[in-house]
UniProtKB/TrEMBL annotation:
Keywords: Methyltransferase, S-adenosyl-L-methionine, Transferase. Residues 55-116 form the O-methyltransferase dimerisation domain. It comes from the Eukaryota. One of its GO terms (biological process) is methylation. It holds the Pfam family Methyltransf_2. This is O-methyltransferas-like protein. The active site is at residue 298.
Amino acid sequence: MAPSITADSLLQLAQKPPQDARERFALYEAARRLMLSVEDPMSVGSRVTAAGVSQVAIDLKIFELLANEPSKHWSVGELEKHTGAQASLLDRLMRNLAVNNLVLEVAHATYSASHLTARCASKAFSAGLAHSKNVIWPGLQVLPTFLAENGYRNPNDHVKSACMRGVGFDGDVMAYLRENPEKAAASYAFMAENKKEAPKWVDGKVPTTDLVLSKEEVADGRVMAVDVGGGSGHQCEAIRKAFPHLKGRVLVEDLPFMVNRIDKEHARAIDFEVVAHDFFKPQPVISAKVYYMRNVIHDWDDERASAILKHTREAMAKDSVLFIDEIILPEFGASTRQVHMDLAVMVFAGAMERTNGQWKNLLGSNGFQIRDVWVYDEQLGAAVIAAVPTSE
Ligand SMILES: C[S@@+](CC[C@H](N)C(=O)[O-])C[C@H]1O[C@@H](n2cnc3c(N)ncnc32)[C@H](O)[C@@H]1O
């Protein structure tokens, strides 16, 4: 240990961490590595229990309770009155949440909110947990057998993914969600809520030049942007809200069972159109200025991703641009969230997050060249890759 760093100085830092996001992330990664390097090997297993207990805390509305009165100290007796759960059980659950810093243990059988409790009480957190519980955990549970049986090859089958095996469904993930509307609703909420609090591509880091249409193009009804596989259309809404001056039509496309869920009145009020479309079929919207895809390609192996890209390329005009909004994994030293996302898409859909080199190869082999890359969330490595058709 460097002589100036002691356990006391680290604890002091923990009580008053810096506010700057970049500095916090650097510290988080450094502290995580420190923790892993000094962790007692017998403690490794205990780290994974937090998620199940968090779901119980969500069900009992414990995070909400604590987050609403952040300075209050709650005895387990008081928590019992509010939740109806037995105090002695609550104490065991709360101390589990406390070792993971999701709440603070302030005295014997007494707890208060930590800096993470409000986040745990958010819709984004519970939607993410519900999505994980419904599909990701069953996939992780069977992953060892699944990989052993496929000879330890990179999974690349959307239909026979570890998750589908885990939930015991004979079909692909989309069919599973279609047949299980309450699980689809959780996944849907997760996608919409997930990045609400995170940096967004429309927040100024990505120039709007590609989205600007001439008066003639607007009069012609040219499409300014089409959000391919756009789920509920939240990115169409983001475009309209962030750039109210931009003219032209904005459309969201997704499978019928997904777009049927969209509130059409709301879409009209925000001014985006809703189109049912399967992106493995020819793209019906020809010559849009921008084809935007967020977290779409990462759900597919290279072969199927190529099919989606091919249909998009065929629809593009000379001045169309493809915006791919995805994680770009670093070639070395990926962060916790990045490896988590990569594993999640592996078990979910036999798919993958990609490095810069992998994006370049995938796009290059489908007739695109990368024109620009704008990283808008450095911690996640989330970026908009602007790609244009390679000139013949
Ligand atoms: C990971 S989600 C991303 C959704 C949205 N772009 C976002 O960033 O929140 C993938 C989306 O692809 C859609 N999708 C899957 N298969 C599709 C297909 N064959 N045609 C069109 N959309 C599809 C799903 O319904 C889902 O909305």
